[in-house]
Amino acid sequence: MSAAGDTPGEVAGQPGATVGFLLSQLGAANARWFHEVLVPAGLGPRQFAILRFVAGAEGQSQNALGESLQIAPSRMVALIDELEEGGLVERRHNPHDRRAKALYVTDKGRRTLSRAMKIGMAHEADICRPLHEGERELLIDMLQRIAAAQGLTAGVHPELRTAEPPFRHDH
Amino acid sequence: MSAAGDTPGEVAGQPGATVGFLLSQLGAANARWFHEVLVPAGLGPRQFAILRFVAGAEGQSQNALGESLQIAPSRMVALIDELEEGGLVERRHNPHDRRAKALYVTDKGRRTLSRAMKIGMAHEADICRPLHEGERELLIDMLQRIAAAQGLTAGVHPELRTAEPPFRHDH
DNA sequence: TATTGTTATACTCTATAACTATA
DNA sequence: TATAGTTATAGAGTATAACAATA
């Protein structure tokens, strides 16, 4: 971090231009922004993520889904409740295990998901508008390398996660 | 967002590689990571940010500082309380306005700040380890362009902010 | 005895509004 | 009447543990 004070002429108290600060700042800002643009679809970012995972493998139990997304079982309940009350997913009976619920996306859920994904693509375009030709791919490549080095898996967002991430502690 | 399902062969339910997702994921992960590495300094990221701003312009009132960082006055109280209890900053009397407190960094605060900034620089180096020669500058340039397009000011972290950010709503 | 889903409880964080002492 | 700081309260979000039904 080329922190304030160690660069002559830099205003003390300003974090300056560091990757860490910018990632943190942009991450928080974009999460909120995405939350906002998703409102017309009637979904929050978390519900969007869960809806995608349900659609990706229908019939899963809540706990199985929660394990993929690293969400505690007790949290899944309210999350699925919301989606079910909105008529986007269904809890069906699992014929092989009467304890478990099998999760399915409804037709309405599929339409909502489709709309939300269009919004997501437009949002991505908005974010990348300041980038020049070809820079988006380069940016993604760099960010993916940083994510991989921190042991972040491709599909799981930390905001959803219950447990601590597999950070590197060798510094 | 090149969302799941619109790319043939992509596993549905996976957000895929988008700038929006990666920023959000890395932002959250790095914020937590930074929180963790900062523990030995006895500071949280927010307190670190405040300490820097106090050091950057000593004698400021709490409200003035809160306006710079976009923190509500009532939140500032507890934040400054913590720093004062830790012996890192002092609330002195403002000779010109007996309502206001003038904030100053103690010697201990200066040593803590110095230690925290070293940690911050090491953290930045850790983040950027997967990048090749010269890529860090390019990454910062791209991230700054994205931040600027969203109206984010250089020194203010959204996590600290009370009010809504000046997002673009033209999409 | 272990597991699925659920509920209840407590804890953290923060936003809001009321209050005091000054101005 | 307005402002600086403070306090109190309420709300959201989330983690933890206990629970009933089933395996």
Features:
disordered C terminus; disordered N terminus; mainly alpha; homodimer; DNA-binding; 171 residues; two-stranded antiparallel sheet
Largest sheet of chain A: 2 strands, antiparallel
- Count of runs of 4 or more consecutive helical residues of chain A: 6
What does the overall shape of chain A look like? globular
Helix amount of chain A, in percent? 40-55%
Q: Please, what is the oligomeric state?
A: homodimer
- Determine Rg of chain A (CA atoms, Å): 20 Å
Structural class of chain A: mainly alpha
Topology:
The structure is a homodimer of 171-residue chains.
Chain A: H1 19-37, H2 45-56, H3 62-69, H4 73-85, E1 89-93, E2 101-105, H5 107-128, H6 135-149
Antiparallel strand pairs in A: 1-2
The structure holds a DNA duplex (23 and 23 nucleotides).
Explain this structure.
Two copies of one chain form a homodimer. With 171 residues, the first copy, chain A, is mainly alpha-helical. In chain A, strand 1 and strand 2 form a beta hairpin. In chain A, helix 2 packs across helix 4 and helix 2 packs across helix 5. The N terminus and C terminus of chain A are likely disordered. Chain A has a two-stranded antiparallel ribbon. In chain A, 40% of the residues are buried. At the A-B interface, helix 1, helix 2, helix 5 and helix 6 of A face helix 1, helix 2, helix 5 and helix 6 of B. Chain B binds a DNA duplex (23 and 23 nucleotides) through helix 4.
